[in-house]
Amino acid sequence: MKIIASLAGATAIAAAFASPVFAQSEIATGANATGISNVNEQMKDVEEAVRDDFDRSSDAYRFGNPEQRQGLYGSVALSYIGRSGNSENQDFTLSGRLSHNQGQFSQSVGLLLEYGENNAGDKDTEKTYVIYEGMYNINDRFYAFALGRLATDSLADDPVSLANDETFSDLDGRLKRDAYFGVGPGYRIINNDQTAWRVQAAVGIRYTKAVEATQSPTAPLEGTIAYDSNTEAGYLLSSRFYHKFNDQFFLTNDTDYLTSDSSDVATNELGLNFKMSDAFATRVSYKTEYQSERAIRTDNTLGVSLVYGF
Question: Which UniProt keywords apply (predicted)?
Answer without folding.
Answer: Signal
